[in-house]
Amino acid sequence: MRVAFEPNREDTDGLSLYREAFITPAALATFCLNPKGCYVLRSKAAQVYSESFGDDPLKIVPSKADIPGHCIIPQLKRSSYKSSASKDLQVALARIFEKDVAYRPKGSV
Fold this sequence. Notes:
The protein is an alpha+beta fold. The chain has one domain (about 1-100). It is about 20% helix and about 15% strand. It has helices spanning about 25-30, 45-50, 85-95, and strands at about 15-20, 40, 50-55, 55, 60, 70-75, 100-105. A hairpin with a 2-residue loop joins β3 (about 50-55) and β4. The longest helix has 14 residues, at about 85-95. It is globular and about 40 Å long.
């Protein structure tokens, strides 16, 4: 599950998240490019803020994008994704988010 929080080449400014107040999990899933569909996980921002990135607490920053409610975690960007601290943070975020699956692809268990 850690790889779900691994920045990809488009994450140059930070890892993307979306605020549920602006878009529903089902609507967000329609933007998924994987033909098998995707899972949408959710968490309260306070749980994400509680994680740290070294001496730098995580931030969630609003960001402009085509999908409503887009925001980023600037500490998780493509340029830092291979560091051991980044991988530890990805594991911590996976543990937080795996507790609440907000949307499952059709046919999944």
